[in-house]
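Q: What residues go here?
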């Protein structure tokens, strides 16, 4: 078990290292002159070659690729993302401020997704192939087909413009998080409903269950000790991936709803060619993906110790 956990951590380190290198390499080789873009974002005026050259030296763009990469990697190992090339402020406080809007919204969206998907999937599996089952599968398929940005605009039109029940833009009150959370949560619910339904149906079809029933084992105990663990593994996989992919969806949703989270933070950094901000967001996203996958692998081994063993 210790060897297995060590292997998982080693794999996580390799993925994070590769993500950091690729992020830096892609930004370094992006088309255009980043020094000019940074100078325009910083001074917002007509620029001279002397000003652009000065900015290039200040942000280290006059160094070679490997010199710049090692200079960035050293502080990164201590979770120091450096300073913004545009504002001159440390990146980490601004990143934390953006995270304080994004992560609560992501967890709220997951909560909405679970509250919708679990009852819908359980009801659907009561009579597989029945009317409720077809209705649940149809709703889930429709939810998967609707883009988040389109759903967000529809919710704004209905609840903010027509009914005037909820605010559409900003993040100053908890009410401002309702529509973005619904936009993301309904998409999560669509994915989870189909997976939970399939997991429950597959678990109920296990060949050993009739033997337990003939022995007089109660249905509640069967559900708790046998059906739930079998159904949980694919659900945990999708749940973890949905949490990770929510960061991707948040980029569009936060821009649509005018929220100052990681999405807006990233878009503004890309437009200004603020390498430090972009690198910080990408590395943070990679860290979230790797951490979630690591936790999923560990949870697998708790639910079913056979996973990961040589003779499993």
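A:
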């Amino acid at each position: 078990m210790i060897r297995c956990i060590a292997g998982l951590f080693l794999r996580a380190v390799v993925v994070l290292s590769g993500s950091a290198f690729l992020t830096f390499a892609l930004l370094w080789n992006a088309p255009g002159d980043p020094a000019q873009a940074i100078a325009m974002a910083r001074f917002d005026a007509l620029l001279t070659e002397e000003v652009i050259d000065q900015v290039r030296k200040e942000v280290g763009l006059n160094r070679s690729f490997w010199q710049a990469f090692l200079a960035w990697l050293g502080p990164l190992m201590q979770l120091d993302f450096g300073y913004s090339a545009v504002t001159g402020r440390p990146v980490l406080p601004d990143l934390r401020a953006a995270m304080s809007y994004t992560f609560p919204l992501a967890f709220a969206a997951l909560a909405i997704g679970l509250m919708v998907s679990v009852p819908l999937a359980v009801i659907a599996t009561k009579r597989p192939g029945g009317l409720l089952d077809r209705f649940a599968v149809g709703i889930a398929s429709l939810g998967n087909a609707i883009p988040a940005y389109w759903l967000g605009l529809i919710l704004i039109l209905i609840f903010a413009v027509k009914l005037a029940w909820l605010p559409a833009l900003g993040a100053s009150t908890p009410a401002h998080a309702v529509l973005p959370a619904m936009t993301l949560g309904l998409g999560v619910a669509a994915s989870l409903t189909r997976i939970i339904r399939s997991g429950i149906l597959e678990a109920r079809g296990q060949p050993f269950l009739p033997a337990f029933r003939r022995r007089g084992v109660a249905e509640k105990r069967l559900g708790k000790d046998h059906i739930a663990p079998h159904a949980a593994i694919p659900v945990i996989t999708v749940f973890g991936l949905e949490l990770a992919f929510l960061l991707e969806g948040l980029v569009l949703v936060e821009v649509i709803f005018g929220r100052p989270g990681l999405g807006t933070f990233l878009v503004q950094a890309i437009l200004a060619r603020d390498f430090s901000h972009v690198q910080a967001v990408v590395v943070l996203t990679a860290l979230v993906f790797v951490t979630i996958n690591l936790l999923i692998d560990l949870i697998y081994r708790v639910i079913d110790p056979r996973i990961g063993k040589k003779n499993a």
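A: Context that may help when evaluating the design: The mean pLDDT is 77. The chain has twelve helices and no strands.
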